[in-house]
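ok so for the tutorial part 2 we go from a plain amino acid sequence to predicted structure tokens. step 1 is just haveing the sequence, like this:
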Amino acid sequence: MSDTLPVGDQVGPGVDAVLPGRIGLLVRVPVKPGLRAAALDVLNRYVDDLHQEPGTEAFFLCVEPDDSDVVWLYEWFRDEDSLEAHRGAPLFGRLMSELPDLVADGPGIMRLDPLRLRMSSAVTAQSL
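step 2 — the prediction. this is what the tokens look like for a chain of 128 residues:
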């Protein structure tokens, strides 16, 4: 595989992309007991408006199946400048004003920079 494959190029079915220079964050968000649905509502509203942060290229919202009081986020940014812009964006400010009352402890953040993305055509199909 070539390191020159541009993001979003199709290689067979689905999407295959090399992601040089991207910045990724894996975030564990422990929510107060019984408030995961409320936290998911806040996070889903955030995701719905992510077009306001063009440097935020991906955002995965996940639930932990064995702990109903934990939400996981994985997000990646085009570069360091995009990460800094995210932190100062009004949309992120809104999230930080709505989410803290639902969180039990400070989130755990681990930097995991993406190297390659492979998504099957089932995920990228318009019929989903």
